[in-house]
Amino acid sequence: MRRLLLAAAAVALLGGCEVFDPMISQQKVKAYRESEFWPDRISQRPPQPGAVSREDVLAPEIATGRGPDGKALARVPVPLTRALLERGRTRFDVNCAVCHGYLADGVSLVARNMALRPPPSLLARAQMPDGWYFQVMSEGFGVMPSYASALTPEDRWAIVAYLRALQLSQSRTIGELAPDDRARLEKEGR
Ligand code: HEC
């Protein structure tokens, strides 16, 4: 019995090794290693001639958040629709709220536990142009990484639009609401 257990343990150990993992032991090139396959011996291949990046098919302003003068766009350059705002809400809740809070007010579990540089409230920067928020998401900001690979440019603009709605919602008093909305809110609050 003891021998059997030992044998089982040995198999389990070996099982964790490269020899049994086809993904690890398969032939492949590592990014900076020399390649024996390509004549120029470079493993990282350049894009094929004529290859178009997904973002290149968009108008430059939509893809970069900058106008022809290189400055951040003042306004979201895609049509503002309810669908865009709803998309922005789901994308914000999934990608940003964990750090910046669901109201973008900087109140989140991560912020409470990140001692050195907690994610700030995004309500305090309402004066920044829309294109700036787009750039922060596209390029990263300080210790915050870029979200370009997680969010399409459309999603990033949707988040900017929703962020504007959040900023508005957090800087208004109930008296400023349209009468219908005010009545509804008062009813819900009771
Ligand atoms: C993992 C946590 C985290 C997530 C997720 C995150 N951020 Fe940030 N964000 C930060 C931190 C930390 C900073 C401050 C970075 C610094 O100053 O170095 C920051 C800074 C910013 C700033 C600049 C704020 C200012 O006033 O200077 C903006 C705008 C911003 N984030 C927007 C977003 C948006 C939009 C998303 C979602 C796509 C997002 N962030 C997701 C952590 C996060």
From TrEMBL:
Query: SUPFAM superfamilies from the xrefs?
Result: Cytochrome c (SSF46626)
Q: Recite the UniProt keywords alphabetically.
A: Heme, Iron, Metal-binding
Keyword ATP-binding found = no
**What is the protein named?**
Cytochrome c domain-containing protein
Q: Name one GO molecular function term.
A: heme binding
Read off the InterPro entries from this record: Cyt_c-like_dom, Cyt_c-like_dom_sf
Organism encoding this protein = Anaeromyxobacter diazotrophicus
UniProt domain Cytochrome c: residue ranges: 83-167
